[in-house]
Specification:
Shape: globular
Order of helices and strands: HHHHHHEEHHHHHHH
Strand content: under 5%
Helix content: over 70%
Number of strands: 2
Mean pLDDT: 76
Strand order of the largest sheet: 1-2
Distance between the termini: 36 Å
Structural class: mainly alpha
Low-confidence stretches: 151-156, 336-379
Length: 379
């Protein structure tokens, strides 16, 4: 793609304008968005991404449009998976629901900055060293295996990293939040609030997420413009999606399995591309490997969409079965005691309702996903 400077400039200004508007809205009125508000914002951002992809189709053709949609869907799926860790962080630090929006927006801005740096570095490195595809491919296959084999995260899996522990030890911290402020004054002393620790936790987590996601999209396109815009559109609306999904987030028990398939597929695709362009002396004497197949973008897009659809359907069927099984078990434990049976059954249905409307934060009330045989690795 030949992207003129003015197109890059216009794109950056438009995206920065959207982020600034989002920041001003949250900053002026911190609140927990309603389901309707969240749905409208998510629909708006998804619609923008679709319109952008159609624009790429009109001006650059189906190949680049397919690369954008494949990259956007992959990054969006990874972003949804990353929300599980945000849930744990918000719960662990007991961030009030009304203030979670601002922290999520800060996390999104940090993620955009980090991914922008990684994208620029990745494009420069790939143009200089073709062997980087081997490294990216191996890393994605390794990540896919971890996703498929490791158990799922819950609140006990979150470990405070060295930077968080150092901040707790060195910085003067208050015990209570003061709105969304990073500092507060108590007894004449200027103290940092727990909100600063939450921001550090989200920022360092964003760094790990970037290391996961950037190699994945390089396996679908080498166009820096498409890589950047796909990442931006995948992150925009993420804070509203956090509140919109609610209990549904906990029902996507097989999302990690689907992501393992997608990342494994992209990893193999990257290795095949590296073999076709090979110049590493240790591989085939430094000569390109002619038998390595080229995977068309249409096939990649079909694999990604098909995997995500099957994963979502299987997850919802599985959790529906678990809820019904829990209700039947509760009824059977009640035995002949009608009062006790009714109470047990009511308790089970209350638990099911908790799954449906699960709270995404707030300490002990934090949600847990139903256990499955495979899931996300501990970060």
């Amino acid at each position: 793609m030949n992207i003129d400077t003015w197109v890059w400039t216009a794109t950056l200004l438009a995206l920065c304008g959207l982020l600034l508007a989002d920041l001003l809205i949250v900053g002026r009125r911190p609140h927990e968005p309603s389901m309707r508000e969240s749905l409208l914002w998510v629909g708006f951002y998804v619609g923008l991404a679709v319109l952008f992809g159609l624009g790429v189709l009109v001006f650059s053709g189906p190949r680049y449009s397919g690369e954008f949609f494949a990259g956007w869907l992959t990054e969006y799926s990874l972003s949804v998976d990353n929300l599980f860790v945000f849930v744990i962080i918000m719960s662990r630090f007991a961030v009030p629901r009304a203030y979670q929006q601002k922290m999520l927006l800060i996390g999104i801005v940090l993620a955009l900055v980090m991914r922008g740096v990684f994208i620029a570095a990745g494009v420069a490195i790939i143009h200089q060293f073709a062997w980087v595809f081997y490294a990216f491919g191996a890393f994605l296959i390794y990540t896919a295996v971890k996703l498929a084999l490791h158990g799922q995260d819950d609140e006990t899996d979150f470990k405070e990293n060295a930077l968080i522990r150092w901040s707790r030890r060195v910085l003067p911290l208050s015990r209570e939040y003061d709105g969304t402020r990073m500092t507060t004054r108590l007894d004449g002393r200027r103290l940092f609030t727990p909100m600063l620790i939450v921001m550090i936790a989200i920022g360092t987590t964003d760094l790990i997420f970037a290391l996961d996601s950037i190699p994945a999209i390089f396996g679908l396109t080498e166009e820096g413009y498409l890589i950047f815009t796909a990442n931006v559109f995948a992150l925009m609306g993420l804070r509203q999606l956090y509140f919109l999904l609610g209990g549904l987030l906990d029902r996507l028990v097989y999302l990690s399995v689907g992501l393992a398939v997608v990342l494994g597929f992209i990893g193999v695709k990257l290795v095949m591309e590296a073999l076709r362009e090979n110049n590493v002396p240790l591989v085939n004497g430094g000569e390109p490997v002619s038998w390595a197949p080229e995977v068309p973008i249409a096939v990649s897009l079909s694999v990604i969409v098909g995997t995500l659809v099957v994963t979502t359907a299987a997850s919802l069927l599985r959790t529906r079965h678990l809820v019904r099984q829990a209700a039947r078990d509760g009824a059977s434990r009640g035995g002949g005691d009608s009062d006790g049976g009714a109470q047990d059954d009511s308790a089970e249905h209350d638990g099911a309702a908790d799954d449906d409307g699960a709270v995404l934060g707030g300490g002990a009330a934090a949600t847990r996903r139903p256990k499955a045989k495979a899931g996300r690795p501990a970060r």
